[in-house]
Each structure stands twice: as C-alpha cells, then as structure tokens.
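Hey forum,

I'm writing up a methods section and want to include a predicted complex as supplementary material. The small molecule is pyridoxal-5'-phosphate. I've pasted the protein sequence and the SMILES. Can someone with a working setup run it? I'll credit the forum in the acknowledgements.
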Amino acid sequence: MNATIPFNSPTLVGDELALVEEAVRSGHSAMDGPFSRRVQDLLAEVHDAADVILTTSCTDALELSALLLEVEPGDVVIVPSFTFVSTAVAFARAGASIRFADVRPDTLGIDPASVARLMDDRVRAVVAVHYGGIAADVDGLAAVLADHPDVTLVEDNAHGLFGERAGRPLGTFGRLSTLSFHETKNFVCGEGGALVLNDPADVARAHVLKDKGTNRRAFFRGEVDKYTWKDTGSSFGLSDLLAAFLWGQLQRRDEVLAQRRRVFDRYHDTLAPVADDLGLQLPVVPEGDVPGYHLFHVLLPDPATRDVVLDGLRRDGIQATFHYVPLHSSDGGHRFGDGHQDCPVTDDVSARLLRLPFFNTLADDDIDRTCARLVALVTDGQGPR
Ligand SMILES: Cc1ncc(COP(=O)(O)O)c(C=O)c1O
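Reply by user p_vandermeer:
Happy to help. Structure tokens for the complex are below, copy them as they are.
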C-alpha cells in the first residue's frame, strides 16, 4: 500500500514559532505592531509601492479595495469567471453588479478581448487574477483600459507574490493589488492578506478605512492631537502575532521559492515529453515571465478523462483536486451578476483541469509516482498500481 500524498502540507520554514513568542512578549500583539511594519516594509519594497497594509485575508484586502474605490450600487466590476469567489464577492458586497469575463486558454488569466466586449460607462473596475502565479495578460488589459481612464485595474495577486511579467513584479500593474497568506498559499500565517497601494494618493484614506474609519494613524504620527471617527471602514488589520509568523516565512523566501520551483519544474519536465501524445495541456508561462510557483495544473483532453484520473489518483492516495467552479453559472453569479453569462473557455477548462499535489517539501519520488499514475490513467483509464 502506497503512502498518501497530501494535496498541501504547510510547513515551518524558519523561526516562525520563536518570532511569535517574541511578539507575545513584546506586549504588542494587535495590528500595526513591529512585525507588521517589517512585513509591510518588505512587501512595499518588493512592489516599489507607496505602502502596504496587512489584512486578515486577501478577501478583506479586496473588500478594502472596494471601499477605497467607493464602489456602490449601479457600478459594474468585471472579474474573471475562473477565479475564487472572493474576487467577486468583495465587490458584490459593496453593491456592484458583477460582470464575468472569460479567460485566455493558455494562461487561464482574464482575456482582454472578453473585457473589451464587456466595457461600458457603468464599469468602475476590472480585477485581474494571476492564475497559479502566472501573469495575466496585463499588457492586453492596459491597451483595453487606455480608452477608459476612469476604470481602475485591481490585481487579485493571491497566487503571484514574487512572480514577474517581463522583469516587473506581479502586483505592480494595478492601482491596487491584493495578496493572500492563507494556509494554502506559498507564504502562510494561517489566515492573512495584504493590500498593496501603488498610488500614494490612496495611502491616508486606506489606513482610515482599515482603522475602523478613524484617523488613528494620523494621531500616532503626531499629525492630530486625538483620533476620531472620519469615514466608513472596518477592522481589517492583521494581528502582530500572525505578522511575526509571516515574517519568519518571508525571511526564507528564496528557499521557499526554490523548493516550489523544483516541484513545478519536475512535474513539467516529467510530463512534457508525453503531453502531446496524451492530449495534456501543461501550464503556459509566457516567454520572459517568472511564475509565482503557486500550483501545478494539467488540462486533460476531456471532462470524462479528468474525472477518471481524479478518482484514480485519489483511490491511490494521491490527493489531486479540481479547481474553480465557474462563477458565472454559480448561484451567487446569477444573483450578483448582471446577466453576461458567456464564458466558454472558463466552462471548458474548469471541467478539464486537475491540480496535482504541490507544497514546499513534496518529495521527488512522490512527484514521479503522481506523474506515472496520471500517465497510466490517461493511457488506459486504469493503469498498473
Ligand atoms: C484568486 C484568489 N483570490 C482570493 C482568494 C481568497 O484569499 P483569502 O483566503 O486569503 O481570503 C483566493 C483563495 O484561495 C484566491 O485563490
């Protein structure tokens, strides 16, 4: 009997536990503590951003974006149908109608041609997701948005921290971008996220919104003599205990990225020689880009084969999984969408996509065993055990 290969296995990669203890002992465990500042400064440097705000999740960072952009009923926000619910729900909660764009069949990122067809005067924002940490077509989006200067580009960069498009970090193309440190992501603290502010004009208000609508930050900076209620907002800040854990992870970023690159490359190099014969489509990384190495997916030739392979791998203890169910055809999509339901590429890839086990410490032998079983299952629907 082969050992189970989990889909994900978050690991301690450095001094996380000691750093959490230090945070407890420092007496500052709420948001905006010393570890939060260190993480925020690092992330601001990586993105060359005006500022970064750590939040309790990427979902919260997206909600903060909606508040910052003053999205309101009557507005439309365009999101890819092939994404996690949060990309849409954060803007739906602000009252926007959601318009679903299709994705490109190669990168699975939002398709600028689909976005162009959906543009009108009601559109306030377009949200791009860098699926798996592979850059969406930000150049194509910029060309579409050039004719719509009032429309804001937001990058939901939950998967793509440290990924690059032509030498430029993902998360620097939109006015705002968001990150996730959920336990399933490359760098984790249980639950966590960040809002990257690429426009200095957003910084002061973003902090007010994060500080429950108060000018608390201005008070601590000595700019006002007391703080009070100024605006709408909520309690979006991340506890410094979690920021300490995250700091421990981020200090080992080169090591983590190298491990994840190893996993990605080994899957790729093992499956690439048989991909054409078996009708497999492997991740497409545009020339000159660096992915964030968040996941490894395979598109099977048809939905039936995907389901056979998924079942077969699971029976053998290999915890592969499918991914997003198209949002445009979900109950929430019908309720919060504005009627644009035509996303054929999303329907197609969602039914054929398989994600393979992927985590920092995944052993080469387990990658090889997963690939061998996958190939056998595609070849004859069963394959030897
Ligand atoms: C593309 C995308 N956006 C947002 C999220 C939400 O992240 P969080 O769990 O940090 O709120 C996820 C979570 O998997 C995601 O895949």
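Some notes you might quote in the supplement: The mean pLDDT is 96. The chain has two domains: 16-251, 253-380.
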